[in-house]
Every structure is written in C-alpha cells, then in structure tokens.
C-alpha cells in the first residue's frame, strides 16, 4: 500500500508530540482531512469535576475514534502534558472520559482536543482549573457557580403535533458570559420522550441530542459541570423506583456526565458529593428510591431511608460553612402540590428534625423542577432559618402556578415565571463568609439579588 506523503507527515507529528515532548509540531493538513477530523466530533469537549490533583474531561465522537487532551498553563505554553488516549466505542455511545492528572493546585489551564491524533480546533476558549490547596495555608478562595434546571431541546420528529416546548437556547451563552467556575445542573437536564425511555437506543439518542446543542458547547468547554437528575432525564414524567429501565438510565447518566462519584447510598443511583474550596455539595437522587405518587404519599419514600441516613451523617460530619443539599424537587415549600417534598410528610419531617437534633449548621437547599424560580425561607423556632433556592426553567416552558399556590414561606419579590438561571457567589474571609444569590433572565439581565451570611445559619 502506498501511503500519501501528507499522511506520513501527520504520523510523524503525532509521534513527536507524546507526553515526553514539550511542544506539538504543527504540520499542514489538507482541507479535506481537517473536515474529516472535525466530522468525528459530536459534542464537547466538556470539563467535568475538578480536584486539587486531577481534572476530568469528556467528549463524544460520532463513531470509533481515539480521543486525547493536551493542556498547558497559559504563562508557560512551552510545557505541555497529554492525557492518556482513550478509545471511543459503541458500548459507551462513543463518549469518552479523560483525566488530566499532571495538574498543580490552584492553576488554570488551556487545553486542546485531539481525535485520531489530529487537532480538532474549536472557535471558543477551552479552559479548566484545578482546585486550590488552601487548607492551613490561606483563606479559602472566593468562587462563583451557575445553576439551573429543565433544559428542553426540541427534536421535531419526536414532538407532539404543533408543540415545540423548547426555546431560548441563547441562555447558555448568557450563563457562559457570567464566567462561573462551575455549572450545577439541577435535573431535567434533558427530556425523554415517549419514543425514548423503553430502549437503550432511545435513551442514548435523547442524551446525545440534548448535549449537542451548539449554544451549549462554549459553556461546557470552560466551566466545570456537575449534575443530578429528576424525572424527565431519569424516565417518564413522575417516574419512581419501579421504572424498569432505571439501570439503563444510570449507565447513560454516567456516560454523559463526569461527576467525581456516584451511588453514595447502597452503591445505587446518582447521589454523591463534592467540595469546591470550603463549600460542600451533597448531590441527592430523588428518583431511584422514590415510592409511587399513587401510594400514600404521607408515608411514602422520597429519598428513601438509606439515603436520608447517609445525608444526615454526611451533613453532621461536614465542617463547611455552607452545606449545599442539591435535589431534583422542592424541599421547603409547604404547598402540597405536584411532587414537592411536603407531600411526603413523615420523611420530610425526619429530615428537618434530624438537622435540628444534630445541630447541623449552614444547610442550604438547591433544587429545580417547578418551571419557576423562588427563594423559600423556613423559620424554625430556637434555631436558624433554612433556605431553599429553586431555579427553573432553562429552556423548557415557564409556568405560572407559583403565582397562586400557597408557598407561605416564599421570600417576597423572588418569584420568577420566565426562563432564567442563577449565579451563586461565595466570598469573604472565613469569619464572615457569605452567599450572594442572583437570578438572570435568558438574555442575562439581572432580575433579583439576595445575600445569606454563614453567621446567620448557625
């Protein structure tokens, strides 16, 4: 077989750009070849979890390929590192997880994506950061994260006649413009259709279709991404623990997200935890252990006994000034509507009583689901008030039910009934750490702001 001269040059470039070489040699590649390499990319790259010693990255190819990330500090571009090359296979829908394990604490990196050994240029910044090693050395750094839920992406062949519920995809551009350190997806991150949830083919199609939105790509490429699920990215509407394909859904979730851990309860579900600087996040699964809504909800299971025990133990062990409990549905809204936790009286009471009895400080709930945004404040005699920050929707249709339901604990002026996202800024010295909550519409316009001091949560 005669090998074209340009292909021999490309092969040589790959050989001299491995981990032992500081800089990649640039070799001209014909236009047709560049197009072929670019055509291998379906979605991403996406930045996953960040830790002091490693950072996760994700990418999805259109078919069999080998993926690799090269990364460097902008101030020292001559020193570069590469992840281990990983094969994209059909078993994982050609989605690949990569690990940048040569990072130093508290550094920012620029990176590049390679598929089949060839650079895949992106028209937006590719950046990630490692977390700082601040403990015992300095005050915890300030940081910002964005959050939202209910991201409906239209897929015309699978929509009901005359209905296209998704819109406003520019919201992802607006989120990226805020330059959050990370994004917290609060569930309903995609919407399974009737054609999807009965088969692996349908489930993986839906996750792939939702992830490929062009407006989302720059955000995925530079802000670290963490996620939980709710009913629509777990199964049918209001799906519970009986959903027959929940095992398939868990596989898809793990293939498409890059959380640092899963299955903190009995090794099942998407629940887990992570820390960003001095704040700890407890990611809950409100579907895997949930009893049917047709069961006696008062005595029913929302998180399940095992997950509830784990949560209370984990909160008790945490020394974080803010302990962010992240869950798919509202926790503190007293209105017994839809799938709110207030419908599950006994289990909700056990959670609130456990927080009080164990004298756990700094608890804040973050959730979505409701297709409106609001801040709920639950006053508790003899101790600090609990806050529940609900943020929804991103691109799904906004709802108006919040205007008439009896959330008697809603903070005045915080109800938003249009597409929106939130930004939470954590700042200040350890003795006066505070949260600054802000809500923005799909164009990025500020709608409201509120502050919560750590000293007021003790």
TrEMBL record:
Residues 41-129 form the DUF7800 domain. Residues 160-415 form the PhoD-like phosphatase metallophosphatase domain. InterPro entries: DUF7800, Metallo-depent_PP-like, PhoD-like_MPP, PhoD-like_sf. The keyword Oxidoreductase does not apply. Keywords: Signal. Residues 1-22 form the signal peptide. Pfam families: DUF7800, PhoD. This is Phosphodiesterase.
